[in-house]
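VOC family protein
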Amino acid sequence: MKRVTGIGGIFFSAKDPAKLGSWYKTHLGIDVQSWGGAAFRWVDSAGNPTNGTTAWSVGDGSYFAPSKSTFMINYRVEDLHGLLKVLREEGCQVLEKVEESEYGIFGWVMDPEGNKVELWQPPAGQ
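Predicted structure tokens:
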């Protein structure tokens, strides 16, 4: 079974998310949107668009609970339910909540350092 196939997103917290997002937009040219983040579209080696994006977002960090970390990484997976089952069998701390929406299927596991790791199975074709 394949496990992680790529990075779907990078999320981090800030004392003032709007101000920090504005800094990244002004000084690094990241196209920060009103929702607090940006989507980096994937391209191949020739610069042609391919299916996939990597999200980048700054927020207040409340989404990271129960982790106390200031960041969370979202990893792309092909079979979320299968991977969560294997992780449980391996003794990992898998959070019970799984979310399914038009954006895909999301699940979470805590790493040994207490960081919440988001696992994401994108919708078919993405």
